[in-house]
Write a structure and sequence with these properties.
Blueprint: H1 5-13, E1 18-22, H2 30-37, E2 45-54, E3 56-65, E4 68-70, H3 72-80, E5 84-87, H4 90-97, E6 115-118, E7 127-130, E8 136-140, E9 151-154, E10 158-160
Parallel strand pairs: 3-6, 6-9
Antiparallel strand pairs: 1-8, 2-3, 2-5, 4-10, 7-8
């Protein structure tokens, strides 16, 4: 099964309606996936794990649209209450979530890991997110995420990328 078992359990236990999309693992990274499968970039949302550097040991999972940049050094740093924060590397991500970059999702994460969702994600009637593995994606109506236990909707978590 392409969707990770813990992810599937997490999403179904929350009664979230979704569609599973198969994905060639070599095309799992956002830009390649969108191009290969005809998904508009503005309909793709990435789960990014961030890690505090000073002090170390604090993490959060952030879901932002692919057309935005996570406000790591501003909003995320302040919300974590730390002096320095950065993107978690692939080893940290795998160790904490059990997922590889290109498949990380907001479902199936440890209960004590904060999950912050940019409010702009909810402006769409559907988005594609990771499925816990590089062999699948999940298409869902993100408005279902508002009010679910363990998820917090955060305005301006993602900043528009200036071209």
């Amino acid at each position: 099964m392409p969707i990770d078992a813990a992810v599937l359990d997490s999403i179904t236990s929350r009664a979230v309606v979704f569609e599973e999309m198969d994905c060639d693992p070599d095309l799992a990274d956002t830009a390649r996936f969108c191009e290969a499968y005809g998904v508009p970039l503005e309909r793709s949302a990435n789960t990014i794990l961030v890690a505090s550097r000073r002090p170390e040991g604090q993490f959060a999972a952030c879901l932002v649209l692919a057309t935005t940049r996570l406000d790591v050094n501003g909003l995320v740093r302040r919300r974590l209450g730390v002096k320095k924060v950065s993107f978690a590397d692939s080893e940290q991500t795998k160790a904490l979530t059990g997922m590889e970059i290109g498949g990380v999702t907001i479902f199936g994460l440890p209960d004590d890991l904060p999950v912050w969702i940019d409010s702009a994600v909810l402006d769409n009637d559907w988005v594609v997110i990771g499925a816990g593995s590089r062999t699948a994606k999940i298409r869902l109506d993100p408005r279902q995420l508002a009010g679910l236990d363990g998820f917090e909707i955060v305005p301006e978590l993602g900043r528009e990328i200036s071209v």
